[in-house]
């Protein structure tokens, strides 16, 4: 093995963040690349096989670059290390440099995985984008961030967010309270994302002006939605008829994002999910994109990734047995 040493010049703050508690981060990186990493007066020295040293150096470069948006954790650390081994520098730079917009606290909202970056590109390039995948992959949050960006840039004049109120069978008239009290429980996750991105007061102001509308899917019927960024969330709980109804509401100068998880369908046995069949019906139409997430795109606790993988393996085994 041809051993080489490369010296990286880093700020003291970068080194402190990179090493982590009890040097846990740097030990993790050393083991992943089978190299020796030591602190010196001007930064770090990396010693080992030439190829591994180059990859390790690149990984550290990206980790230092990314830490400006959030503190390093083991999940992000592991993700970047693995992607450095398989992706080129341009793709990684594009991912880490991209900022969708600033949230209410003026912090940048960025794609946290390459899968999320691909999803954002699909939204930018298509009229209708489907984001399909497990919980925790940022499907809805990123769609709302893109909607906020479009509104700020005057690309659209309003944002419309909708969900099937499947727990009530869409028969909201039978529920107690006024319209807002009836629908709020089903739309609460959308409100939470809007508060995070826009701020509570700004959201209320835009909602009062009719610039932002949050409503059940049933209330989209009979409308034509022009000059709007429209998001259908929890689309796995839309029937085929509802999916067709929603997609045919889209008017001129509008963009739509449809999100859902086909493993969490709450419809009764007699109803089929419109999200399952739509890819077979529309997959060859220009301007429509189907973007699929997997457990590697989960940005919640690492245990969630393991849970999703375990359920996927179990459900696949049931299909094989049938």
UniProtKB/TrEMBL annotation:
<dbReference type="InterPro" id="IPR003714">
    <property type="entry name" value="PhoH"/>
</dbReference>
<dbReference type="InterPro" id="IPR051451">
    <property type="entry name" value="PhoH2-like"/>
</dbReference>
<dbReference type="Pfam" id="PF02562">
    <property type="entry name" value="PhoH"/>
</dbReference>
<keyword id="KW-0067">ATP-binding</keyword>
<keyword id="KW-0963">Cytoplasm</keyword>
<comment type="similarity">
    <text>Belongs to the PhoH family.</text>
</comment>
<dbReference type="GO" id="GO:0005829">
    <property type="term" value="C:cytosol"/>
</dbReference>
<feature type="domain" description="PhoH-like protein">
    <location>
        <begin position="109"/>
        <end position="311"/>
    </location>
</feature>
<protein>
    <recommendedName>
        <fullName>PhoH-like protein</fullName>
    </recommendedName>
</protein>
<dbReference type="GO" id="GO:0005524">
    <property type="term" value="F:ATP binding"/>
</dbReference>
<dbReference type="InterPro" id="IPR027417">
    <property type="entry name" value="P-loop_NTPase"/>
</dbReference>
<keyword id="KW-0547">Nucleotide-binding</keyword>
């Amino acid at each position: 093995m041809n051993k080489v040493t490369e010296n990286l010049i880093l700020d003291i703050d970068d080194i402190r963040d990179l090493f982590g508690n009890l040097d846990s981060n740097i030990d993790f990186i050393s083991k992943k690349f089978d190299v020796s990493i030591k602190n010196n007066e001007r930064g770090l020295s990396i010693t080992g096989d030439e190829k591994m040293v180059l990859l390790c150096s690149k990984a550290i470069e990206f980790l230092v670059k990314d830490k400006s948006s959030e503190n390093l954790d083991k999940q992000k650390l592991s993700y970047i290390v693995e992607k450095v081994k398989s992706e080129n520098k341009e793709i990684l730079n594009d991912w880490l440099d991209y900022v969708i917009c600033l949230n209410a606290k003026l912090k940048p909202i960025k794609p946290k995985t390459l899968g999320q970056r691909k999803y954002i590109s699909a939204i930018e390039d298509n009229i209708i984008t489907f984001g399909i995948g497990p919980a925790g992959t940022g499907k809805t949050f990123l769609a709302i961030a893109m909607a906020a960006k479009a509104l700020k840039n005057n690309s659209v004049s309003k944002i419309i967010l909708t969900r099937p109120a499947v727990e009530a069978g869409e028969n909201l008239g039978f529920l107690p309270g006024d319209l807002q009290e009836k629908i709020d429980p089903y739309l609460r996750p959308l409100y939470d994302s809007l508060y995070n991105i826009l701020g509570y007061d700004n959201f209320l102001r835009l909602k009062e002006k009719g610039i932002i509308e949050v409503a059940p899917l049933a209330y989209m019927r009979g409308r034509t939605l022009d000059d709007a960024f429209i998001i259908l969330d929890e689309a796995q709980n839309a029937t085929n008829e509802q999916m067709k109804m929603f997609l045919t509401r889209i008017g001129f100068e509008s963009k739509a994002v449809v999100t859902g998880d086909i493993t969490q369908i709450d419809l009764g046995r007699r109803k089929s999910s419109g999200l399952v069949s739509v890819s077979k019906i529309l997959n060859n139409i220009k301007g429509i994109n189907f973007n699929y997430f997997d457990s590697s795109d989960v940005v919640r606790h690492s245990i969630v990734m393991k849970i999703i993988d375990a359920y996927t393996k179990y459900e696949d085994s049931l299909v094989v047995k049938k």
